[in-house]
């Protein structure tokens, strides 16, 4: 398949539908059974994007700046118009489910009063569900089995096994096994 050469390494069962754009000098590493439908990836120097096994990415974009690391675990599903924008590090652990139009950005991109922009890593925990149109800002860790409601803005750490929603996201419930 002509797209395979865009990967530094890729396992078996790669499926690419629609357009696949990979730009820049960074590295793209993928496991087995990765399905990409209209995916755009931009990388800068020394950026590394790693995608695990059994991952489905649909109509979405990943931007990885110089030296940035984006890691997408196993059994992750990411839906339409999601943007992952990393200047440092964004880690999405296994079984995460990310709803339409959600944005993860680990940088403010602009500083305030002459200071440098704040850039802090983001971690999305195991079996987390981010519903539609969630915005996850710099430095946030979302705990395992947690859920973030539609339209939420997440600006601080979220514990394991909770449901949060709103702007800024606040706890509205708890979960045992997370989304199903
Ligand atoms: C996460 C979610 C499933 C939780 O639903 P739930 O547990 O039934 O929550 P409830 O409807 O009982 O709401 C509990 C409280 O949180 C508030 N709340 C619920 N969802 C909210 C949201 N997205 N934003 C702000 N507040 C929200 C409710 O107003 C309620 O507040 P109150 O206790 O003061 O009355 C739901 O909020 C959600 O986001 N649904 C959309 C899922 C989606 O986007 N699917 C698309 C595919 S990924």
Write the layout of secondary structure elements.
Blueprint: E1 9-10, E2 15-23, E3 27-30, E4 34-43, E5 48-51, E6 55-64, E7 69-72, E8 77-78, E9 83-86, E10 89-92, E11 97-98, E12 103-105, E13 122-124, E14 129-130, E15 135-136, E16 141-142, E17 147-148, E18 153-154, E19 162-165, E20 170-174
Parallel strand pairs: 1-3, 2-4, 3-5, 4-6, 5-7, 6-8, 6-9, 7-10, 8-11, 9-12, 10-13, 11-14, 12-15, 13-16, 14-17, 15-18, 17-19
Antiparallel strand pairs: 19-20
The chain binds coenzyme A (COA).
Coenzyme A binds near residues 131, 147, 151, 166 and 172.
Structural summary, described in words:
By secondary structure, this protein is an all-beta fold. It has one domain (2-174): Hexapeptide repeat proteins (UDP N-Acetylglucosamine Acyltransferase, domain 1), CATH 2.160.10. 0% of the residues lie in helices and 44% in strands. The mean pLDDT is 97. The structure holds coenzyme A. Residues 99, 131-132, 147, 149-152, 163, 165-166, 172-173 line the site of coenzyme A.
List keywords for this structure.
mainly beta, 180 residues, binds coenzyme A, 20 strands, globular, UDP N-Acetylglucosamine Acyltransferase, domain 1, seven-stranded parallel β-sheet, 13-stranded mixed β-sheet
| Portion in beta strands | 35-45%
**CATH homologous superfamily, by name?**
Hexapeptide repeat proteins
Bound molecules: coenzyme A
How much is the average pLDDT?
Answer: 97
The percent of residues in helical segments reads under 10%
**Rg (C-alpha, Å):** 16 Å
**What is the subunit arrangement here?**
single chain
Largest sheet: 13 strands, mixed
**CATH C-level category:** Mainly Beta
SSE run: EEEEEEEEEEEEEEEEEEEE
Low-pLDDT sequence parts = none
């Amino acid at each position: 398949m002509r797209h395979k050469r865009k990967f530094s390494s890729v396992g078996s069962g790669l499926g690419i539908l629609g357009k696949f754009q990979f730009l820049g000098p960074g590295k793209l590493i993928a496991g087995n059974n990765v399905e990409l439908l209209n995916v755009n990836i931009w990388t800068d120097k020394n950026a590394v994007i790693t995608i695990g096994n059994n991952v489905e990415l649909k109509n979405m974009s990943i931007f990885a700046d110089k030296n940035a690391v984006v890691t997408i675990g196993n059994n992750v599903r990411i839906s339409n118009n999601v943007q992952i924008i990393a200047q440092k590090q964004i880690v999405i652990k296994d079984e995460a489910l990310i709803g339409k139009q959600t944005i993860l950005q680990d940088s403010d991109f602009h500083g305030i009063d002459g200071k440098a922009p704040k850039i802090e890593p983001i971690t999305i925990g195991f079996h987390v569900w981010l519903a539609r149109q969630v915005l996850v800002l710099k430095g946030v860790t979302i705990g395992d089995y947690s859920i973030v409601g539609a339209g939420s803005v997440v600006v601080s750490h979220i514990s394991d096994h909770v449901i949060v929603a709103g702007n800024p996201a606040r706890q509205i419930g708890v979960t045992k096994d997370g989304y199903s």
